[in-house]
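User: Hi! I have a protein structure encoded as tokens and I'd like to know what sequence might fold into it. I'm fairly new to this, so please keep things simple.
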């Protein structure tokens, strides 16, 4: 968190590096919330989830008639994030032609909608994330070197949850607060014994880097109990975890580190 707190107030571009499921989106959101832009938009784009033929339209927008099917003008994600933060997740999946256009935006701080001639200034803080080795992709010419150096201003390596167990209570309680908000409920928190179970879980056996798995506990509890009771060891979402042998080296975290 020291890196997050030091770079958040600055306008620097941040590159979050780590395995899938390490919580990079959470950190990107924290960077925005701790920045002077926190009152403005936080716009997320998963570059891997958008067709290569549509990614430029998603990012930069298009004018009516710019291509077949463009029946009306569309504002892109950069314009939607004006004055705020644009989070480009899975940036390593961006096609090379889109990388070239993104480089221009990073350098010039302006965009042009597809099919348009008007230059539009953009005031956007860019945060990127990837689970790829971008330096290797640069060598293999799968990622532009000039764009990499522009994005790699402040790299932050995000370790998997199995290497930062003391963060588990903070993460779970953050997930609980986030999920409770749209329901209009005050977050009821997590039982101490349930947190102990989560902290001793054999995360090394999990298929992902685990923040996704960790977030599923309060998410599942919301579906089952609508945040009525506190999450406890008998909760349906924790029964599977209870059947997995704990790591021998797992240590109990202190009450203070639980963020309670």
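Assistant: Happy to help. Inverse folding works backwards from shape to sequence: for each of the 260 positions I chose a residue that suits the local structure. Here it is:
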């Amino acid at each position: 968190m020291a890196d997050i707190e030091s770079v958040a107030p600055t306008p620097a571009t941040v590159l979050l590096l780590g395995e899938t499921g390490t919580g990079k989106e959470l950190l990107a959101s924290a960077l925005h919330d701790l920045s002077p832009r926190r009152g403005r938009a936080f716009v997320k784009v998963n570059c891997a989830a958008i067709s290569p033929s549509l990614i430029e339209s998603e990012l930069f927008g298009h004018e009516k008639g710019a291509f077949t099917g463009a029946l009306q003008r569309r504002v892109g994600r950069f314009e939607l994030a004006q004055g705020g933060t644009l989070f480009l997740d899975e940036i390593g999946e961006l096609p090379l032609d889109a990388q070239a256009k993104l480089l221009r935006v990073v350098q010039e701080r302006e965009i042009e909608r597809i099919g348009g001639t008007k230059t539009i200034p953009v005031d956007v803080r860019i945060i990127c994330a990837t689970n790829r080795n971008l330096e290797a992709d640069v060598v293999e010419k799968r990622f532009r070197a000039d764009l990499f150096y522009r994005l790699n201003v402040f790299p932050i390596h995000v370790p998997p949850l199995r290497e930062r167990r003391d963060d588990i209570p903070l993460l779970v309680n953050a997930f609980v607060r986030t999920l409770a908000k749209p329901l209009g409920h005050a977050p009821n928190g997590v039982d101490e014994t349930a947190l102990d179970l989560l902290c001793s879980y054999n995360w090394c056996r999990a298929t992902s880097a685990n923040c996704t798995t960790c977030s599923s506990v309060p998410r599942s509890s919301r579906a089952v109990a609508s945040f009525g009771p506190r999450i406890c060891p008998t909760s349906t979402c924790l029964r599977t975890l209870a059947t997995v042998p704990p790591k021998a080296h797992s240590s109990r975290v202190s009450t203070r580190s639980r963020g309670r």
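A useful reference point when you look it over: The longest helix spans residues 211-225. Feel free to ask if any position seems puzzling.
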